[in-house]
Design goal:
Helix content is 15%, strand content 39%. By secondary structure, it is an alpha+beta fold. It folds into 3 domains: 105 residues, OB fold (Dihydrolipoamide Acetyltransferase, E2P) (Beta Barrel), CATH 2.40.50.140; 122 residues, OB fold (Dihydrolipoamide Acetyltransferase, E2P) (Beta Barrel), CATH 2.40.50; 126 residues, Nucleic acid-binding proteins (OB fold (Dihydrolipoamide Acetyltransferase, E2P)). A hairpin with a 5-residue loop joins strand 11 and strand 12. The structure holds zinc ion. Zinc ion binds next to loops. It comes from Solanum bulbocastanum (Wild potato).
Length: 388
Amino acid sequence: MEQNIRICELTPQSSDWICKTQIVDICGPTESKEKKLNYLNMILQDKEEDQIKGIVYGDDIPCYQDRIKLYHTYYIAGTPVQPSSSKYEKALHAFELVFDKKNVLLELDENDVDALPLPTKLTLTPFTDIKQQVLHATTDLNKKEFDILAIVVNCFPRRYLMSMNKWLQELIVMDIFKHTFTFTIWDQTIMDNQGNKLLQQLHEYPIILARRIGGSRYNGVSLTTKFNTTILIDPPYGQKHQLRACLLGNSLQDHGEQTNTSFTLRSTSKSRTLISIPVDEEVILIANAESQEDGQTFSIEAKISFPPDQKKYYVLVCSNCGQDVRYSIIMQIQCMNCGQHRMLIPMCRFNVNLEDSSGSTTTMIMNKEGEKLLSLTAELLLRTIFHL
Ligand SMILES: [Zn+2]
């Protein structure tokens, strides 16, 4: 007899079971370097929100790729159950499911009363815990993976790292406790999709759910994508409203001219950029800011002014990847950075002087942060300058 089973009851010995599940994560298809095998991973959960990993291999992927959709409900049956192959510290379940052409997969309509409600279960690691775990890891750092729900407070265009012969894109992300990390995206597909979207939505402070990310000891502690990382922008989890509230309650304050205001600076060896969201970091003196590690964020309280010799408040950038050009007339280009034919668009970028009792420093302010400060959009600024 066929029996309804819960995910927590599944074992390789279970037979003729059927289970109502919802797909809450889809990763891939990815090519495994070791095995030369393509696979597609999913996370399935049941009514109790117990979770299990599902895998589709090789030739079976096309059969599933177009049929499985995030947050849809499926009855599944005839799926082999095997011991978990996870090499990571915390597997979702002792077992995992292998999907092939002999499976039964029955999709429920989204509006079906029997469809499972939107998920609520997230196993997130607070940024302070990630920091501790990465700093004090005694085992292989590669075995650690974390899920985070975070606000993207800044996002940079992708850049090429000659020394590693690789592209990367960096985000500054903040958790609900207002701790921040630099999060480096190495994955081409993620850069092309989520990375580009984040650049375009940056002024809205998008929220991301990133699953299976790694920690790195580069730049103090930073976050990094792994081969199986997924990033979802604006995930349907209620927890994001808390995060949004935490942002709204504290940010977007007016920057009164010549008054002391808190800023968060991101330090890099080449340039510094300013974020006006107060993060929960100790306020430090500008004189001590020089000694901060690369890529770190820290807060300062400073008087802000414009350098007297500054003539330009904007740059023109590729509308696809954000690469700036040394040219000030809007035109169509073939971008040297991403290779695409795109229009140049104006983006706010200028320097400001920051001064406190200990000293002063110059920092770069860009994009929507700059517009906020100038209270004009970059486009308006360009029109004003050119008297268009
Ligand atoms: Zn480009």
